[in-house]
């Protein structure tokens, strides 16, 4: 996936970039770019040595994007379903009369645990560099003043 962005700061071989909103962003609700006027900033590998203010093209591998989507959406959903199933079994074992509300609460507990696990492994994900964007092209050679 490729997006246009503006370099806002540099740190060694990394650059913080602000993703440029496109007209398609206003119709999409997949991230905070489309849902409000807030700008999305990410750190990207800066192997092309882009300077602050330059318009660049950033890329994230499709595999990494799919993996991130799986981690954030599918794993918690599986945790919720597992929690509901275990809650129903546990309600039967403990002879709890309100099985469905108990299993729903157990499902919410499991979804919270999966999000906690994802958060706890965030440093691992950052170190793996799998989810890091990369500046692949400088589109505007003139640095702009903010």
TrEMBL record:
Keyword match Transmembrane helix: yes
UniProt keyword list: Membrane, Transmembrane, Transmembrane helix
InterPro entries, alphabetized: RseC, SigmaE_reg_RseC_MucC
Residues that span the membrane, as ranges: 70-90, 102-120
Protein name as it appears in the record: RseC/MucC-like positive regulator of sigma(E)
Native organism taxonomy: Bacteria, Bacillati, Bacillota, Clostridia, Thermosediminibacterales
